[in-house]
Design a protein that fits this description.
Blueprint lengths: L9 H14 L5 E4 L8 H8 L8 E6 L6 E5 L15 E5 L6 H9 L5 E5 L7 E7 L5 E10 L15 E2 L2 H20 L2
Parallel strand pairs: 1-4, 4-5, 5-8
Antiparallel strand pairs: 2-3, 2-7, 6-7
Helix pairs in contact: 2-3
Length: 188
């Protein structure tokens, strides 16, 4: 499954729901996020909900003094549709992934059956808000930063893959790994 952006709104979440329903009974899953440039944190949170138990904390978005924050967690409404806990998942990463894409990779890496393959991500854990200016101009300003439940994030270091490999070879390696897993699963 290839994703280039976490679009905003119900149509994006419905597209994710349809894709996840299509792969629900697969023996393994490859997520290609090598060109994912960020997007809506709520849509990323929605997709993550397929991989984690109901209402699991993903941390929070906090302002500079952490007095105001937005809690992030898996959604309880997906209970029967969640990916099997033992399903192997490979996430392809790249230095072009940022913000919501990195949030997704950071969280998914915590799942024992997940392997990240590719290169370290950009290292941007700040969230931007767009402000319109006169003459049709727009400026993006940082308004919050991500913190996991322990207060950590990937700022300046990126999310590091489990297998550091050239982007051109990452999909081939992911296919090799998932083929091995599927043969093993189907031979039981």
């Amino acid at each position: 499954m290839k994703l280039n952006n976490f679009d905003t709104g119900g149509a994006a979440k419905q597209a994710i729901d349809n894709a996840m329903q299509a792969v629900h009974n697969s023996c393994a899953l490859i997520l290609d996020f090598t060109e994912l440039d960020g997007g809506d944190i709520n849509t990323a949170e929605h997709l993550l909900s397929y991989f984690f138990p109901s209402e699991q904390s993903f941390g929070r978005l906090a302002n500079d003094n952490a007095s105001d924050y937005l809690a992030l967690m898996s959604q309880p409404t997906l209970e029967s549709e969640r990916v099997k806990a033992d399903m192997p998942v490979v996430l392809l990463t790249s230095p072009f992934m940022q913000a919501s894409g990195e949030f997704f990779a950071y969280q998914l890496k915590q799942r024992p059956q997940t392997t990240l393959i590719g290169r370290a991500t950009m290292g941007v854990s700040t969230w931007l808000e767009s402000f319109n200016l006169p003459l049709g101009l727009q400026i993006d300003m940082p308004v919050a930063h991500y913190q996991d439940p322990n207060g950590n994030n990937w700022q300046h270091i990126g999310v590091t893959p489990d297998i550091d490999i050239a982007l051109e070879a990452s999909l081939t390696e992911a296919k090799r790994m998932t083929a091995q897993w599927c043969v093993k699963i189907n031979s039981w």
